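Morning run. Coffee first, then this:
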Amino acid sequence: MLAVARHRAREQGVLNVTFTRADAQVHALPAAHDIAISRFGSMFFSDPAAAFANIARSAREGSRLCLATWQPRAANDWLSIPGEALLRYATAPEPTAGPGMFSQSDPSALAATLMSAGYERIRSDPVIVDQIFGADAAEAAANLTASGPSRTLFDTIADGDRQAAVDALTSTLAKHEGPDGVRLAAAIWITTATRRG
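And here it is:
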């Protein structure tokens, strides 16, 4: 991923950027930065309080924080609709506490963490984005079972049941086919905050 980012930056002549693989909880971040952005990454901090405090310590007063995180699973059609079809054959993973896809799906809990880390003017705005998963139901079923959470479910299905599961998923997705393909809604929180003085 970093190699691709560096290559693209060189290709486009972008010279004022560096790419670093590091743990935000403990890494010595550049001092006095103006903005910190996370796109579906902060939910995986094993210690969010430590990570956000570390980010805040290196930020200048008034700097901004912007996070994209998932709303709860039930609000995300792209997960719940395929999941319902596959769970007729699949084994659901045991729910876990701690870091994970939905660990920051409660904006009140996230706001409390950010406040204690040194942020204020915290606001979480709900955003719904339609995602296209394939040109038709069959392609969307193939794409969903090849990656992401649907793949995780699909991998638990016995070999003898896999075709039936794909058929059930395809039939379900056909109800969401439109002229431009299969669209399913993704529900996101966009959270912004400002570093306290």
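Helices lie at 2-11, 48-58, 77-86, 107-117, 137-146, 148-154, 162-174. Good start to the day.
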